[in-house]
Specification:
This protein is mainly alpha-helical. The chain contains eleven helices and two strands, in the order H-H-H-E-E-H-H-H-H-H-H-H-H. The longest helix is centred in the middle third of the chain and has 25 residues. The chain has a two-stranded antiparallel sheet. Helices cover 71% and strands 4% of the residues. The mean pLDDT is 88. A hairpin with a 3-residue loop joins strand 1 and strand 2.
């Protein structure tokens, strides 16, 4: 079972929403792994709250598909089948492809420079084989392109769906060759973004996401097996 270390308390305003947001972060970071049970006593102690707002937050995350409610047994982090992963990544790939096309039309020079800086730092982390630094930078690049689309509906759909596979999407185990290919694809992304080539970047983003299917399915299968 994952051990959750004590942390800072939570502001009392809109308490259940804040608890839900904090739990989302724990799930997406992998601290709460797929199929792991929600320990209400640990979380109430960590957040400094009663069980009522925690249970309201659990209901919210269950409607988002991040948690599964177990009759008379609390809740656990949702698992995802290989078929669901394939379907979700197809949709995520489509959203990122659309965002890429829009971003090339709307992104500012400052935003491009920021993406280029994150990419350079990401490459340094890859060369050092520092996954803890590499993967958050990888995610920031994808999210920066999404934000640059200037389409709030698109971004909300993306964040809601990608949250279910976020940790494994960016940090699932991969071979050295797969990791190198991902870095090369990111270099091409940055070049296409700089050139404002919407069609080219759109096609690359879709292919990039599709290329994660097998790795992601294996990661979720491993997590489910460990939790069984």
């Amino acid at each position: 079972m994952n051990r959750i270390e004590p942390g800072l308390g939570i502001n009392r305003r809109y308490l259940h929403d804040e608890v839900a947001e904090r739990m989302r972060d724990l799930i997406q970071s992998g601290e709460l792994a797929p199929c792991s049970r929600i320990n209400e006593a640990e979380l109430t102690d960590r957040f400094g709250i009663s069980r009522t707002p925690l249970r309201e937050a659990i209901k919210i995350l269950a409607t988002e598909g991040l948690l599964e409610l177990l009759p008379n047994r609390g809740a656990r982090v949702a698992s995802i089948s290989p078929h669901e992963i394939e379907e979700m990544l197809e949709v995520i790939g489509g959203l990122e492809a659309t965002a890429a096309d829009l971003a090339c039309a709307n992104i500012t020079e400052a935003e491009i420079a920021s993406v280029e800086g994150d990419h350079a730092a990401m490459v340094d982390a890859w060369q050092a084989r520092d996954a803890a630094v590499y993967f958050p930078l990888n995610r920031r690049i994808h999210e920066a392109i999404m934000r640059a689309s200037r389409n709030g509906v698109l971004e909300n759909l993306y964040l809601g769906l990608s949250g279910r596979v976020q940790r494994s999407r960016y940090s699932a185990h991969q071979t050295a060759e797969q990791w190198e290919r991902a870095v090369e694809e990111h270099a091409r992304m940055v070049a296409l973004l700089r050139a404002r080539d919407g069609a080219g970047l759109s096609a690359l983003m879709r292919a990039h996401v599709r290329g994660r299917k097998a790795v992601l399915a294996a990661s979720f299968a491993e997590a489910a097996s460990a939790a069984a």
